[in-house]
Design a protein that fits this description.
GO molecular function, one term: deoxyribodipyrimidine photo-lyase activity
Radius of gyration: 14 Å
Protein name: Photolyase/cryptochrome alpha/beta domain-containing protein
Distance between the termini: 26 Å
Number of strands: 2
Domain Photolyase/cryptochrome alpha/beta: 13-69
Shape: elongated
Number of helices: 2
Organism: Timema tahoe
Largest sheet: 2 strands, parallel
InterPro entries: Crypto/Photolyase_N_sf, DNA_photolyase_N, Photolyase_Class-2, Rossmann-like_a/b/a_fold
């Protein structure tokens, strides 16, 4: 979490889940936590994924899997 706060501020307009290594919906506890925050605060949940050029020494095969699944 980017904030140590346990509650979502009133001025918040959404919850962002920054996806990087764990690109899955099932058994993704961080994503479930973000979803819970969004539901509790009645805010939209936005999932952001940024493909970086040097991702943990990934090969072309890894990048293909990241993009195609």
């Amino acid at each position: 979490m980017l904030s140590k706060d346990k509650v979502v501020p009133d001025r918040a307009t959404g919850i962002v889940y920054w996806m990087s290594r764990d690109q899955r919906v099932q058994d993704n506890w961080a994503l479930l936590y973000a979803q819970g925050l969004a539901l509790k605060a009645k805010l939209p949940l936005h999932v952001c994924f940024c493909l970086v050029p040097k991702f943990l020494d990934a090969t072309i095969r890894h990048y293909d899997f990241l993009l195609r699944g």
